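Re: the 383-residue chain
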Amino acid sequence: MSKMRVPRREFSRHWAFTEPARRMALAARQAAELPARIPAPLFALLLALLATAAARGRWGWAAGLWLFMLWDWAMLAMLPRRGVSYGPPQPGTLLLALPRALCGLLPLPFAPALEAVGTAVAFYALWIEPHRIGITRQTLRSTRLRPGAPIKVLHLSDLHVERITDRERRLVELVAAERPDLIVFSGDLLNYSYVDDREAWSACRWVLERLPAPLGTFVVSGSLPADRDDAVAHIMEGLAARWLRDERVTVEHRGQVIDVIGLRCTHRPFLERPRLEALLPTPRQRFTLLLYHTPDLAPDAAELGIDWMLSGHTHGGQVRVPLFGALFTSSLYGKAFEMGRYALGGLTLYVSRGIGLEGSAAPRARFLCPPEVIVWEIDGAPA
């Protein structure tokens, strides 16, 4: 477990910076989706021009590099046809074409060998790793809990459902085999590209219907592009799972008493903290679990005396580089809360790698960052 003291960032004082940054991120996402609108013949021509420029007059190599790019395109186009994932192939193809073009600048025969390795890595990241759901086991002991009465808690995050695929079926099987006492979900039910898709809503309901637990299943919303209120309301209607919207519920089991707080996420911690404070009982005595989509509220939660916080959002970077980790986390704190377990004073934070793939123009791929289900055993510790 990483133990750290993260510098407090008063984002309310930097509104002039954070809001334009948010708008720039939205504009970048929209720009990244533009290749999906390019007709196939023009897109093939664009790839040919890119390959020709990278080959620098080596015409045979230009043709070979173009074939590598076309193979990437075919590999991505087959994903929805085989029911693996459902994004448009052009944005991902262009994303792969850029490093291919850079490698294409290398001298022969190094360039073709490196491109072949890139093809193998891309196949693994697109077709294999996104479905390799693993179980991460954690334990937590607290003096606020009674010793000798452990509770099994299963944490899920970032489903990003498009359709029912092998990944969703495997998830349901894993959860059933674990038989947890309590299930908690820390946001992002839907894939960004399928927020308005009724079939995706039904697929999401199919998953949640199959996640029962004796002490309940609790859900919080994630980022607005994935968990718009009307879509989540439709998904949750009539389900046994409970959608927590700035609410605190008390769970009791074998003499253990836990407060579970579910907080809506706006990605603005300075707005979230007052709402969290209003939900905390006075005086504070019970063990408290906070469900909040991003880890960005962790410094505030630690200051407020929260015991345990479960989050997601970062996907662990989704694509990781050896010795460096996540290239991008979408967290206000950068790589500080990238993935895994952290200790901030008396707070234990866990940031899940999530289950699904974000969607929109983001790559439907995972590399060195497989999806995970986290199974916790929580129990008391001697005072």
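The first strand starts at residue 2 and ends at 3.
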